[in-house]
Specification:
Chain lengths: ~525, ~525
């Protein structure tokens, strides 16, 4: 009997332990995650954005009070979040593609110009439905439009060996998804390295960490409009190889992000030759190819450089609907083109893309609409040109205004933006500010950006998120706030900056020149 | 002089070698890819689909002639590719969201019911633009709709601890993207294993290979409506642990893919208890939750099982707009909900999601429209119900017709589809057919499916792509061809099958019973 009771008690205790006792450590905790995920850093949505979100919640709650009424997110190239209107033609077409039964009704009432209906009909006929999975690489009709775009842009001779094979085009959910695919295909482990510019857009460092690869840094020359030199590339390559790395690829960002330079044709050709002589896959991030301002070198693609040099480079190039004057970040569209890469390797990339079945089909059509806009003579052409010119000329003006304002600040120097959507000013911080940052456990640029955010609501990203030469401090800001708000932004920034410099004794020193 | 000439010759030779001579092995070749990519298999877009694409090209060219006029893709659940019409309400709303300036024009002319305009206005107001990046986890307004949907579905008591936190919801480009995120977060290397049902939808095996993890198989019981038993789970878990694996999670697919079973509530609860007692993260693929037919057990979510058992399980559940009666595969929308997972782990998942910035925003709205359809009393409600009922009842009829036809074939047995969109018949192949397959270097089921494709144009997927017990052979077919085409499909399949069996001496044997 005693034994029976004690067994019963034991049973009760075990039950209590399993349901009410101290729970065992859960399977998934911060200590037991994939460590590569933990290591991965992605500054454009990092600490500054987290803090901005906290402050936004505080603004909504109304308490505790803040010295500004709203945040202004200059942390990321997200033009429509800051008031840029979408182009009319692509959105009109997409509205019809989304609901084909309404097409004939709207055509009868002439709500849109005639070419809108024609394009919508073409896309509607190209797939069973926008709601059906497409082929893994994307809708063939759109890939043909991309192929024509590339051929026209790069002045490819008809029927030459350089015409674009639609099988080499992959439509993707934006360029970031394409970069992930490309890197996952190539990286085998820690001994594989990719040469990445510093400063860089952090998708490259993030993805090389996440896929357990290594990043080899080559420094852009701030003194020379953030250009890449072959000498520096050789140095970086030698250093990586000396460290036992198998350097597999070279990333170029042209026009530059965060640095804004536009590469002259001869530089792109030199990089192609360098890749061939060093057996590197060239990964060309060309998402800002339409964003070139004023007297800067015109955009010259890596593919065109390959053709004109006759070099048999292995090339992957990326484009996106998120940038340019399209700014359709939320629609997630873009493409990856392979060049000089064999069909058996391509088949592996198709398999990799097929794991998520296909990129979103409306985004694919949006990509077609970007690369194949209304032509001269078509009904939508005049408005298209007007909208395009207004966006690009405004971007150029805004870049100039902010760049000038930055250079007027004590202890700030800023290169001209030849392209893209960013300025990357250098902060010549007083020693006391560096010391205060160190004390707070922050890098000095992060410290500056956090203080800026907390004082003004302006969200910019510290240079350390992109990489910078040791001992230099920068931040990246988009020049996307609308022109009507620009004076306000500049005053906020200037007032904060002067106070910050004064606080740390930086106003007494002479303005530092690069 | 001689030395000068020889140096010149050397220079010419070197030039010839570098530009015209035998080129060095390119950096990126099949031998030098990420071996995990090479290993990854994804049958639903695998060999059968490649062959189907070749035959389609052949059909277009018209030569050499084929015994069929078109292929019928039953390889993947892609309803709109086989003629299913999108629901009207979501597409009407999306057409307005895509082009807000047209909203007032269309409202004035009453092109759509009033509730369409109201919903479109709500979504338009919820973001700066559909063309702006959203938060990494998705538009808050849509996440609130998802939260309400889950609470209503699972009968969560208001203000209880079980209400859904919108911060635990991630809007994704379909469920596959969500599965990739979840697996990448968890898998640290080969010693980490995930328990996956066999047969399974191959995203789980593919992704566990790609992320360098291991898959531990538990077999579903074909004899018992493809159910999962705790005894079999224990066996599989023990086997994996004995092999030194750290088993981190359990995947359940409910309703089953490719197997079509709907899990009774008690089974789901048992699985939750099993996960808690064995410290496993439960990954619940519930994308077919709206596809339950006839007298099958109603859908019972893993989250509801967690609530009703009171067990503190760590749960990730997946849903999608691609299935159900929505069938919006091409729009790429879905969600992942975390339950019982700590905020610091969640923050890492947010970071991982942020690498591609956000899922496509129209797909996010499509997700909102799925979980928050027109309500009773709203103008669009009657049509919505009519369309929904027509699709679901047709799916049920088609499932029944094909299942019966399959069971009528000699050497074929097929369980009822209680849910989802697939049938997974077992082929009891004659020895001679198995021998012929072996000789051709194919698995017997692949051999059968290739022959079926080449004879009829029907594209189905061999059971080996999903996993099956050794020595058994199956294929998966969707039941998505439209009812008007169904008789034709059944005749094609039956004629082929009888000829195949006859050819290999399978008609003389008695019908094999399970």
């Amino acid at each position: 009997m005693a034994s029976h009771v004690s067994r019963l008690l034991l049973f009760v205790c075990l039950c209590a332990l399993s349901t009410n006792g101290k729970a065992p450590e859960p399977q998934l905790s911060l200590d037991s995650l994939n460590p590569l995920v933990l290591e991965t850093e992605y500054a454009v949505r990092g600490e500054l954005l987290t803090r901005a979100a906290e402050l936004e919640t505080q603004l909504q709650a109304g308490t505790p009070p803040l010295p500004f009424a709203k945040t202004v997110r200059c942390n990321i190239g997200n033009p429509q979040a800051l008031g840029q209107k979408p182009l009319s033609f692509p959105r009109q077409v997409l509205s019809l593609v989304m609901n084909p039964p309404v097409l004939s009704v709207m055509e009868a009432s002439k709500v849109y110009p005639a070419d809108v209906f024609a394009r919508a009909r073409k896309y509607i006929a190209s797939v069973p439905s926008a709601g059906a999975y497409s082929e893994s690489q994307g809708v063939t009709e759109v890939r043909k439009e991309v192929a024509s775009f590339i051929e026209h842009r790069d002045q490819v001779r008809a029927a030459s060996a350089d015409v674009v094979d639609v099988d080499n085009i992959f439509l993707t959910d934006g360029a970031s998804a394409a970069v992930k695919l490309a890197m996952q295909l190539m990286i085998r482990g820690k001994d594989d390295a990719i040469l990445v510019p510093v400063p860089q857009y952090p998708i490259y460092s993030a993805v090389s960490t996440l896929y357990n690869g290594s990043m080899a840094s080559y420094f852009l020359s701030e003194e020379n409009s953030w250009s890449a030199t072959i000498a520096e590339l050789r140095r970086a390559l030698r250093e990586a190889r000396d460290a036992g790395k198998n350097v597999r690829g070279l990333v170029i960002i042209n026009p530059g992000n965060p640095t804004g330079q536009s590469m002259p044709a001869e530089d792109v050709k030199s990089l192609v030759r360098f890749c061939v002589s060093e057996r590197l896959v060239l990964m060309a991030d060309e998402v800002y190819q339409e964003n070139i301002y004023g007297p800067a070198p015109p955009f010259f693609s890596a593919r065109r450089a390959a053709i004109e040099t006759g070099e048999k480079v292995q090339l992957m190039s990326f484009h996106s609907i998120s940038k340019g004057f399209s700014g359709e970040c939320g629609l997630r569209g873009g493409y990856l083109e392979l060049y000089g890469i064999s069909a058996d390797v391509r088949a592996q990339l198709v398999k990799l893309a097929s794991l998520t079945l296909c990129s979103n089909v409306p985004g694919q059509f949006a990509t077609g609409l970007m690369v194949n806009p209304p032509s001269k003579g078509e009904a939508s052409y005049p408005l298209y040109v007007e909208e395009k010119d207004a966006i690009l000329s405004s971007l150029e003006r805004r870049a100039g205004i902010i760049q000038k304002a930055l250079n007027d600040l004590p202890g700030v120097t800023c290169n001209k933006a030849e392209g893209a959507m960013y300025l990357f000013p250098q902060l010549h911080l007083p020693e006391a500010a560096v010391a205060a940052a160190n004390k707070a456990g922050k890098t000095p640029d992060t410290y500056y950006c956090l203080k800026l955010l907390e004082a003004t609501g302006l969200v910019v990203v510290p240079g350390s998120g992109f990489g910078q030469k040791n001992g230099t401090y920068h931040f990246r800001t988009t020049f996307l706030p609308p022109e009507k708000d620009l004076d306000g932004v500049i005053i906020l920034l200037g007032d904060f900056h002067r106070k910050f410099m004064e606080q740390y004794g930086g106003l007494s020193s002479k303005k530092v020149e690069l």
